[in-house]
């Protein structure tokens, strides 16, 4: 029996067979529609399964990658070796008084809508963010003046060793589009948000306005990773790219959006290599024209495709 066959047998002893896919195309799990295959694509259904899979990867020295819902991510064309875990089946949202507890795989959009249903204010900013709750904590996601750290009270995580850990929000070092979650290798299982009582119509009006702004200004008709770059101090990334006359610039099937210069869209079956090359071209051009270094907000993971 090969090592991969042995690993497969152990994985399906931890979780259901339906939750373990071999050579799964990651382009089917990313908003950019980019990326090669995962050796093992695993979607556990309980916290205990997550812990056991993490411990297995450690014990067998198997590469391990956590994949959110793929909204702020580029997977390279060569795919990802070892185990790729997606927590999409851990997606429950519960509300207890003014606290909202959302599992990692739930969409942060759905968390904001659940808060609205209970007349709770504090998550309106998230009504247009396409990421998962786990991904939102990972990068302290934000939009339109709000961010996760404004409402997050605590998180339940799994450590690199597979142990459960309860952390206060302050222990995550949340700052602009970052946290210490990747530094520690934490896997977020759930987040608890402390919200405030509000008026349904007022909360909905804010969410409707933010949804309109998002839909009218962002190129949602094409696959993309969302905002590619962080906002540089004193500037707006999209304005710098626009002023560099890069809107419409295309490498292969990847294009700087004509609708919003801060987005790169997959308009014609782009490869990850083309998409990444265009990111680099934008960075180099803006640096040359304005002396500003654009820092990526999007994560790039995986291996390059080996060309024969």
Automatic annotation (TrEMBL):
Pathway involvement of the protein, from the record: Cell wall biogenesis; peptidoglycan biosynthesis
Catalytic EC class: oxidoreductase
Lineage: superkingdom: Bacteria
Cellular location(s): Cytoplasm
Keywords associated with the record: Cell cycle, Cell division, Cell shape, Cell wall biogenesis/degradation, Cytoplasm, FAD, Flavoprotein, NADP, Oxidoreductase, Peptidoglycan synthesis
InterPro entries with a match to the protein in the record: FAD-bd_PCMH, FAD-bd_PCMH-like_sf, FAD-bd_PCMH_sub1, FAD-bd_PCMH_sub2, MurB, MurB_C, MurB_C_sf, Oxid_FAD_bind_N
Residue positions of the active site: 177, 227 (proton donor), 297
UniProt-listed GO biological process terms: cell division; cell wall organization; peptidoglycan biosynthetic process; regulation of cell shape
PROSITE patterns: FAD_PCMH (PS51387)
Enzyme Commission (EC) number: 1.3.1.98
Span of domain FAD-binding PCMH-type: 34-198
Cofactor(s) needed by this chain: FAD
Pfam families (alphabetical): FAD_binding_4 (PF01565), MurB_C (PF02873)
Gene3D superfamilies, sorted: 3.30.465.10, UDP-N-acetylenolpyruvoylglucosamine reductase, C-terminal domain (3.90.78.10), Uridine Diphospho-n-acetylenolpyruvylglucosamine Reductase, domain 2 (3.30.43.10)
Catalytic reaction(s) noted: UDP-N-acetyl-alpha-D-muramate + NADP(+) = UDP-N-acetyl-3-O-(1-carboxyvinyl)-alpha-D-glucosamine + NADPH + H(+)
GO terms for cellular component: cytosol
Keyword Cell division: yes
Single GO MF annotation: UDP-N-acetylmuramate dehydrogenase activity
Assigned protein family: Belongs to the MurB family.
HAMAP family: MurB
Its biological purpose: Cell wall formation.
Protein name: UDP-N-acetylenolpyruvoylglucosamine reductase
Source organism of this protein record: Oceanobacillus piezotolerans
């Amino acid at each position: 029996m090969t090592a991969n066959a042995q690993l497969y047998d152990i994985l399906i002893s931890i979780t259901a067979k339906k939750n373990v896919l071999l050579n799964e195309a990651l382009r089917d799990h990313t908003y950019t529609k980019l990326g090669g295959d995962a050796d093992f694509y695993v979607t556990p259904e309980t916290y205990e399964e997550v812990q056991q899979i993490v411990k297995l990867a450690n014990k067998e020295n198997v590469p391990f990658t956590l994949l959110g819902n793929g909204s702020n991510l580029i997977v390279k064309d060569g795919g990802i070796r070892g185990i790729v875990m997606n927590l999409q089946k851990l997606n429950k949202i519960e509300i207890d008084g003014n606290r909202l507890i959302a599992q990692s795989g739930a969409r942060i959009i759905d968390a904001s809508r659940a808060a609205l249903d209970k007349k709770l204010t504090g998550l309106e900013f998230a009504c247009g963010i396409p990421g998962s709750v786990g991904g939102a904590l990972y990068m302290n996601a934000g939009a339109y003046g709000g961010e996760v750290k404004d409402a997050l009270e605590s998180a339940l995580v799994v450590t690199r060793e597979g142990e459960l850990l309860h952390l206060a929000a302050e222990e995550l070092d949340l700052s602009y589009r970052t946290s210490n979650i990747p530094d520690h290798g934490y896997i977020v299982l759930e987040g608890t948000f402390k919200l405030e009582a509000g008026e349904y119509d007022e909360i909905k009006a804010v969410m409707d306005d933010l949804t309109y702004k998002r839909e009218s200004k962002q190129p949602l008709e094409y696959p993309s990773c969302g905002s590619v770059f962080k906002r540089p101090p004193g500037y707006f990334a999209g304005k710098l790219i626009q002023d560099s006359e890069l809107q419409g610039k295309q490498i292969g099937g990847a294009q700087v959006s004509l609708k919003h210069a801060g987005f790169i869209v997959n308009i014609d079956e782009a490869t990850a290599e083309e998409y990444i090359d265009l990111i680099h071209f934008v960075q180099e051009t803006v640096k040359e024209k304005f002396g500003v270094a654009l820092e990526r907000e999007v994560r790039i993971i995986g291996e390059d495709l080996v060309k024969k």
